[in-house]
Each structure stands twice: as structure tokens, then as C-alpha cells.
């Protein structure tokens, strides 16, 4: 990779951490530029015009100056970094199965496990809107169901897809390992807990903070 | 592709349609097995044990008998079918950018545009729970924002990623072209409307119904 890699991030975000962890496991140098999402720093006119019209981080910037390219969506940025590496299986089914768990992460896991962490740990329950408070129970149930499904899957193999660590593990590790900050107890998911330790033992692993 | 391909689907689901459209554009034979999600047919013990523990369709089944493999998540199934075809760009950035829009589809578009269609067109507003009714306005705003972002992006190019049709177009077409069933007007999005016509004009295109 000859072009510079810059991650536009908020370090408290698990979605940003996925990209840092992918780069670390691959030994890729990655600069970071930090924004405070609580202060709306990703919704400024400059950010919307130059970095991401969707007003969200993470964004992976590839190259600098007029030829810089910008890649939003955490799992797409991980894919870019890991392209051609062992973190993406070559086998056709295993590759699609890895993506299956990455889409599961964004659809079934993140909107529940990560959102409750954001609401309860960073925003604070007292500051939630009535609409948000009304969704806590549904998100709790759906988040537990996502964790249960992962635990059941991990009772039959060491990794989420294929026979070794892939981007599916990185994507799901990010918010699972801090799920307790969203009020999710992990004691009921023993296979999942052993998998968390497997990820943390990977050569090159970096913690979230 | 020598193994048989069987799609477990509900034909009213845009997520299922994505897979049928991908197969049609590629000229791949695809059998279908139909379930009625309104009757809970994807939550039976048999379905959970044999097809998808997550209790959802679509599921792409590859092969039959004891060696059959099952792939949930619509966008992952499309990836499997299109692997090695022109529907997935080879260029590293374009490929990641395609996945970027597919993750956007599952995170920003589907939970708003598709969910309102399901609630208002199939379940019926009078049958929604108080929790669901309370989310309509937020989903309306977020769905319009997703459509606006697509329209703005399509004002600068014919396709969502790269220079030709890719899986990103198929994934986003599925629920966008029936967004009016969820109460979304498309007249405000002229570039998006022209793109809908471009997709419908593709050789091999099949309609949803």
C-alpha cells in the first residue's frame, strides 16, 4: 500500500475501532484524525462537503490532496485494507459467509448492541428522548438474540467464518467486547467469551482505547 | 456453477428479490421455495434447525442433501452468485466502494424504506404496535435522507459504484423501486428516478412480481 491511509474517527466508536484493529493485524500504518460526534463535528458543512455527505464516521481516506478518495462504512473500509490478505478467505463460500456475518453485524447486532451502549454509556438514560427510551426493551431483546446466535455459532467452531480469523471476527468483536457498557451481560454466552479471548490473543492485536 | 441453487424466499420481500435479480442478470438458474413470513413460516423449529437459526429469509441454499450449504443475508447471497462476474468490480477501491453502498443499504436504507413499506403496505397502520407507530416519523425522516443521499450521488454518475452496474445497484434498487408502497414519494429525486429506469432496462432484468 503506497498511498497514505488516514482514518477520520471518534476513538469511542466501535465502528472506527474495527478499522484500527484491521490495520494493526495487517501491520499497516494508519494515521488518525479525531472528531467528537457528541459535539456534532461530523455534521459541519466542511465535513459534509469534503469527507462524507452522510455526516458519519468512520471514513477511511486513501491518499491526500486532490486525488484523495474517501470510503465511509466501517466494514467496507476493513475490506479495502484487508483486500488480498488472509483476513479475507479465498474460498467462494467462505468469503460470502464472512460477508454474511458482516451484514448481520450491521443489521442485527450494531443497531441494538452498539446503540444501547451509546445511549446508556455516553448519552445517559436521563437524556434520552421518549422515543429512544421506548425502544430500549426491544433493542435489549434483539441484542441478546444477536449475542445468543453468535454464541451458538461459536460453539461449533473457533471463528465466525471459515477456519481462521477473518474480517467477520473483527467486525463483530468491536461492539461485542464492550457490550457490558450497554447493559448486556456476557456470562450467558461462554463460547462467545472464549472467542473474545481468542481475538485478544491475536498477534498484533490492539485494544480499543 | 455446477451445484444447484435454491432460494428460500417470500416473493414480497425486496431482500429476496435482490437475489432473483442477480441470478437473472447473470443467467443463472435458480429454484425457489416460498414461505409466508406473515404466517411465521420462517420461525418453525424445522426452519430454525435446517435453514437459518436466525429465522429469516432470504437464504440461498447451495447444493442439496447432506452437503447442502446455507447462506443467509441477501447481500452476501448476491456476492456468492456474482463472484467472478462483472457485477463485482475488480478494482480494489471500486469493490470496497460497492460494498460501502451495500452496507449503507442494510444500515441506512432498508430499516427505514423497507420497514415502512412492510408496516404500512402489508401489516397495515391500524395493526401496528404503539412502539412501531411511534417510530414512523423517525423512519420517514431517515428514509428520505437515504433517498436524498442516493439522488445526490446519482446526479454525478450513472451507477452507485464504479462505472457500470454492480451489486450496489441491485441491492439498492430492490426496495427503492417500491418505496412508494411505504409512503415515500420519489418525485423529489430525479437522478434516482432516471437510475431506476436504467436498472429496469438492463438485459436480463426481471421485475419483482
TrEMBL record, chains A, B:
Pfam family, any one: GST_N_2
Highest taxon in the source lineage: Bacteria
Domain GST N-terminal positions: 3-89
GST C-terminal domain boundaries: 91-209
UniProt cross-references to PROSITE patterns, sorted A to Z: GST_CTER, GST_NTER
Protein name, UniProt field: Glutathione S-transferase family protein
Organism in which the protein naturally occurs: Altererythrobacter litoralis
